[in-house]
Known about the structure:
Layout: H1 12-18, E1 27-31, H2 36-49, E2 57-64, H3 71-84, E3 88-93, H4 103-121, E4 126-128, H5 133-145, H6 150-153, E5 159-162, E6 165-168, H7 176-186, H8 202-210, H9 215-218, H10 223-251, E7 252-254, E8 260-263, H11 264-268, H12 272-287, H13 295-305, E9 310-312, E10 315-319, E11 323-328, E12 336-338, E13 343-346, E14 350-355, E15 361-365, H14 367-377, H15 386-389, E16 393-397, E17 400-403, E18 405-406, E19 415-420
Parallel strand pairs: 1-2, 1-4, 2-3, 4-6, 18-19
Antiparallel strand pairs: 5-6, 7-8, 8-11, 9-10, 10-11, 12-15, 13-14, 14-19, 15-16, 16-17
Helix pairs in contact: 2-7, 5-8, 5-10, 10-12
Amino acid sequence: MTGTLKPAPIEAGEARRIFASLPPRASLAVAVSGGADSVALMQLLARWAAEDGPRPRLHMLTVDHGLRPQAADEARAVAAWAAGVGLDHTVLTANKPPPRSGIQAWARDLRLRLMGEWVVSHGAEGVVLAHHREDQAETLAMRLARGSGLAGLGAMRGEAVVGNLRLYRPLLGVARARLRATLESLGQPWVEDPGNSDPCHERVRLRQALAADGALAELGLAPTALAAAAGRLGRADAAIEHYVNRCLEVAATVDRSGYATVDGKAFAAAPEEVRLRVLARLIGWVGGGPPPRGAGLETLLADLGGRTAATLGGCQVAHTKTGLLVCRELRNLEALRLSPGETAFWDGRFVLGLQGAAAPVDIRPLGLAGFAQARTVVAELGNIPSRAGQAIPGGFRGADLTAPPVFSSKTAGERLGVEFYRGN
């Protein structure tokens, strides 16, 4: 009688092929929650990085969402496992309480934000994630249920930029069972998050339906088939992205002060799908978050066709004489305190550094009065539209703007060095 073949662990030669696409000699963060998938990624990367030849510098990141009391202990366990294979590790902690609903989406966005801030402040290239073949299939099924377009149904890519953060997913062709088999072969424990088996979460319900004895699997919708379909859709999506990039080159200009302009004629000549994606990309850059998708984006384009200004993704999109202006809204802009010599990543858009100062300043958006004042002392602010300039950060002591924003190092006196960060 023939039994089911036991999944094979990933050996060194296969790991070399899997990680061959990662940038050599770069600094990379690695997201490690403590679950089996990410711990397997850490173990495989550690062994691969120890081999001869050019290899990236690796730093493990664990996000403590503050959702479970065990999370801090689990993060300490990951730190110990990382140290055991010679890797550095940092815990990133949520600084805001979770919402009452939409916990998984909130947690995902929190991870991206905290890891993005770490990547920028440490000069890293991006983050390596442990998404695997079943994740690919589950994501396709979830997006089908939501009526996603081609961009959503296309495969997660081995390398992609989400918002301003570059992501690497080297395990997309690997089955979940093989990652667990790898850990078992190494005698490496992992953390079982009870949330990963809680059917109140959409992804968990789909995972159960896609299992060998699940409802979708019985209909032939197995993870291998869905992952293959996602890959084919991804090829079509990549073809459209080629024309999106061309349209961005011809029609859009992203200013270093954090706003974008769009040439109306060149934009109008593009197909609707390309125009939607151009807007999404610009809103992601200017707003500092993930690019918007779906009905909200379609409504935005329709509103613009009616010559109406609109908001989406933390941005305001308005008509100008020659096309469109995309700038950051003045709401939900964080305040922070910055000391001399420190750097900070602000609003998912700007890398800040306080220069020529002897005391800390409070960082907040310039606003109307602050931008008018900054223009009188910083010449390079003169050509920036007022509605865009008001969302630029400045350094304040009380109500006084003491460290105006500058985009070059030639300005003398106390100043706030500002570098717009797009991630690609």
